[in-house]
Amino acid sequence: MAVIGSIIKGIIHATDAVTTEPNAVEAQEKVLQGLLEKAKDTAFGRHYEFAEILKADDIRKAYAERVPFFDYNKINEEWWSKMHQGEDNVTWPGNPPYFALSSGTTGKSSKRIPVTDDMVEAIRQTGLKQVASLANYDLPSDFFQKEIMMLGSSTDLNKVEDHEEGEISGISASNIPFWFRNFYKPGVEISQIEDWDERVLEIAKEAKNWDIGAMSGIPSWTELMIKKILEYHNAKNIHEIWPNLLVYTTGGVAFEPYEKAFEKLVAHPLVVIDTYLASEGFMAFQARPETHAMKLVLDNGIYFEFVPFKPEYIAEDGAIRNNAPTVKLEEVEPEVDYVLLISTVSGAWRYVIGDTIKFTDVDRKEIRITGRTKFFLNVVGSQLSVNKMNDAVKELEQQFGITIPEFTVAAVKNDQEEYIHKWYLGIEEGDADEKELAAALDEALKAANKNYGVARSKALKGVEVVKVGPEVFTEWSAANKKKGGQVKMEKVMNEEKFAEWEKFVRSDRS
User: Fold this and answer.
1) How many CB atoms lie within 10 A of CB 122?
2) 106-131: average pLDDT
């Protein structure tokens, strides 16, 4: 069997050796041209005159000038909703066979995002690119014959009229090619279980029968799955169950906040590979081990634009203002936060996905996700992004010797009607005084962000910390959305949502 692993590893190395990197700008121009050509006869394409844009000397400039920004609410109200009324050829030829349900991190009701056959194929092709990039990692040959645990949402999709609906991880898993199914765990039968707790219990029961070499999934839910397996088998760490586990692929969420928690669950470190698979497409993946940054996929059905993430361009609800400028790929600067815009083979056009990113390596086109536009805390000019919050929380972990895999924060008024930042920290183990945590958090943020320091000297009058168990965050997700899959915890809440959260924390959740 080791021979098979050596053959597969050899094929991956050979594929990587003959694959040449496309010119980034030319690749993006080609993608946009292809998108416009295919969609020019749709209702959207006719409305925004794609045929005329294609005649322009500078297609990218003409496209940006003619087509406005769309967030989900705007494109759904004006265009995607027509698909549910039976219309064809709305924003992409034909009708999509799937709709990805996504409540994201900001709402209780699900978004319904079209997923076309072209997008299913694009996701598959990017997956193959990621597999080929494993040639850059020093992995033993027998790794390539091990099984892969993919902890996503249920693959038992809901049939609605002429299409199926489910989370993107469930849609992707339901389209796994036949040759991969022998490697894929937990397998078709368990993956179809809708109830997350029941599905994870079945995974725990079967865990010792599998030889898992790699896992993929959102960190918070993967951590809970591992804990359930350890509890069921009375094991100290996951390597007692899966001794050949080497790789963990996360998606769309920074792994650093969960790093200390994961260290307690393993016997030896895992190779962590970040990916950026959202309901709207597979946009980037970590292609080399020397960095946590992810390489944008520039030649596979997604066209990217970038809006500087500055307060004057962002509305309070996270939407981009109409006067916001866009930056082309060749114009981006390193370590600058941008709001990501995408146009895709699923018929999303200049779509505000809601994520902010920065380029860590402009030449390699490598990015890191820095937060969400709605997670930008700027009620009193503090201008805090999630990456700054994550860094400050990591400092607390080091300073106090504690583990904080989850947190949420809001700007609220105290009894004197003055604004403060109130934090809830999900502390897994270790002890620290709440006032000491608040003071240390305050100092870390002042040192990291001059705008925060200015706000603290003026309108922002204090910082308060409340300690809770990490399980409160998963219970909140379960009560408001659902468990598992692509569900991510809100890092920043508005006052109304925060009041609901505090009521939930105070309630008897049993």
Assistant:
1) 20
2) 82
Residue with tokens 């359930």: 228
8 A C-beta contact, residue 404 and residue 425: yes
Q: Which CATH number among 1.20.1280, 3.40.50, 3.30.300, 1.20.1070 corresponds to the domain 377-506? A: 3.30.300
Least confident of 14-18, 113-117, 137-141, 334-338: 14-18
CA neighbours within 13 Å on the CB side: how many for 478? 13
- Is residue 185 pLDDT above 70, yes or no? yes
**How do residues 490-502 score in pLDDT, each as one tens digit?**
788 888 888 899 9
CB 281, CB 301: distance < 8 Å: yes
Angstrom distances, CA of residue 203 to CA of 187, 502, 510: 10, 33, 24
**Nearest CA to 286 among 260, 251, 259, 334?**
251
Would you list the domain boundaries of the chain? 24-80+87-93+292-371, 119-285, 377-506
pLDDT of residue 341: 96
The Cα 89–Cα 419 span in angstroms is 49
Topology of domain 119-285, CATH: Rossmann fold (3.40.50)
- Helix/strand/coil for 256: helix
pTM: 0.79
Q: How far is CA 194 from CA 248, 467, 510, in A?
A: 24, 32, 22
Continuous segment of H or E residues that includes residue 60: helix 59-66
Q: From 364, 361, 315, 365, select the one nearest 339 (Cα to Cα).
A: 315
| pLDDT at residue 405 tops 90 | no
